[in-house]
Amino acid sequence: MADATEPCFDAFTRRLIQIKACILASRVGCGRDGEDWEQELRLHLLRRLPAYRPRRASFHAFVKTVISRYAANLLRDGKAKCRDPSRVVSLSQIVAGDGGRPEELAARVPELARACPGESQQLSPEEQRDLRIDLAAALRGLSPDSQAMATRLMERSKAEVARDLGLSRYQLHVRMRDVLRHFEKAGLREYLS
Known about the structure:
single chain; mainly alpha; two-stranded antiparallel sheet; 59% helix; flat
């Protein structure tokens, strides 16, 4: 197998593969780290190289298309495993409860929901009030343009907000990334989706 010093693995290609591998490792995982994903992306690119036609596109455009599409497919397939219907179980299923007593799985749902990180949970009225206060304070720390964008995004789709503000989707994404960083610094990471 070729290594990353071959001519087709220039700085642009190596960086793109690192970025896509990082995304796959964080979103798909499956017990694989970034280096595993990088290797898979490199191998796929090497297999696709014979299809490169210089008259159709630049080499970097070819690389970006091949790597981005393959990474998107891997991401889609990884998420599909999470939706695997064979993982679904009935809430009527009998499981061992406290002290080994048999009980229906439905009786343990509130307990299981608390144990699942990243899942939305019901907030008490006090927690909701505190969250509103923290959110208002975080919004005040943004520029007026970012405040307008953030409040619109709470009620409308990204496409609508980008259209309303006269921004491209990329420009909106860049601004959103900055706003999300601001909210993370304000300690609101667990509420970001």
